[in-house]
Amino acid sequence: MELNDKIYATPRHETHVVKVGQIKIGGNNPIVVQSMALGVHIDSDDIKSGAKRYAKEIIELAHAGSELVRIALNSEEVARAIPYIVEEINKEDFDSKILVGCGQYELDRLVQDYPDNIKMLGKIRMNPGNIGFGDKRDEKFERVIEYTIKHDLPIRIGVNWGSLDKYLSQKLMDENSLSSNPKSSDVVLREALVMSALSSARKAEEIGLSADKIIISCKVSKVQDLISVYTALAKSSNYALHLGLTEAGMGNKGVINTTAGLTYLLQNGIGDTIRASLTQRPGESRVSEVIVCQEILQSIGLRHFNPQVSSCPGCGRTNSDRFRILTEEVNDYIKIHMPTWKKKNPGVERMNIAVMGCIVNGPGESKHANLGISLPGYGEKPVSAVYRNGKYFKTLQGNNIFEEFTVIINDYVKEHYTHE
After folding, report:
1. Separation of CA 340 from chain center
2. What is the CATH number of domain 18-300?
């Protein structure tokens, strides 16, 4: 196979551009990272206090880099709390339009009862399978769409495997059972997901909502299903697409499954906004799902968020912890200084640093980075060669190698990433 850049440069699927506050989703705009706040219980007798606790998590996610943060519109208390949540996030210089209201069974009632509160949000998310039942389903769907039109709100029509429109799925299953060449139930359900999302979006357009106000998603929990469904969506429409593997799981399983599914689609030009739906361990922050999204986008070159540190795994030639400690120290140093660098040193997120353990690949890898430091390997004497822009720069010795290397890092940042 001939190697060329086309492998890494599949054209983006052309979609409508949806504006959410100051953020543009779709077209050739950067892939948007979003997350969802876990939320807190809000006491009806103390809405303001509950709103402050809810806002604290939203602010944490926003500071981590979540450009949109979804909240569950699942009660009157949450709807009443929106103005107070907005007040708190405004104090941190975040626009209320970063908030996405996720409504299910109760969405129709809440937009009618609290229209002025909900219009403060940037976007609404609706699942057509949960908006209503029987004759009331279409009526409720229409009311929510009419509300978004009146208040100029974009909407994500999000269909989930676990809450698919029962009427549609049963209809397709019945038709399939009568076919002379029936498909597997999984194939039929994938078709039902795509059909539900597209038919709901087109119905919203018939009511009067513009296509550039619609984002659609079809969430499933298996990687191959995700790829099949979104490939079909991209071939069938030009709506902006939100990607995510729902119920991805906890720990490595969730991260790996999410990475596998999203990377394939993004590499093939499919997807305009993403979320990693990870199960956090008790007490763990949801910030991890923001970091996973950022790492996916940065690893395939679609966006840059932080300087990248390349480091080897270590082997028998690196028989002490000196190299691993240095790697950890460099990573921590970048994490601590990035908030300042982002403001004062634009472009620093594209910097590459190599921290290598021995002379086998160390010098070569270091020469490919903006900055590289290579330890000698066996015995790991306190001697380290430093490279700048592919050329040998100097050798550091003694017990203060990390401190001396941070001076080199800071000098490089100031020299190469400073406002004119």
Report:
1. 23
2. 3.20.20.20
pTM of the model: 0.89
Cα 298 to chain centroid, rounded: 11
Q: Where are the domains of the chain?
A: 18-300, 308-417
Question: How confident is the model over 329-350, as a mean pLDDT?
Answer: 94
Question: Does residue 9 carry a pLDDT above 60?
Answer: no
∠ at Cα 317 (312, 321), nearest 5°?
A: 70
Q: Which two tokens stand for residue 361?
A: 């690949």
Pick out the residues of the known binding site. Answer: 312, 315, 358, 365
Size (the chain), residues = 420
- For 27-57, how does the pLDDT look when each residue is reduced to its tens digit (9 = 90+)? 999 999 999 998 888 999 899 999 999 999 9
Residues contributing to the annotated binding site for [4Fe-4S] cluster: 312, 315, 358, 365
Model pLDDT, residue 160: 82
d(CA 163, CA 171): 15
Residue 102 to residue 79: CA distance in whole angstroms: 11
Which one-letter DSSP state was computed for residue 245? B
Homologous superfamily assigned to 308-417:
Sulfite Reductase Hemoprotein, domain 1 (3.30.413.10)
pLDDT at 181 over 90: no
166 vs 172: CA distance, rounded Å = 10
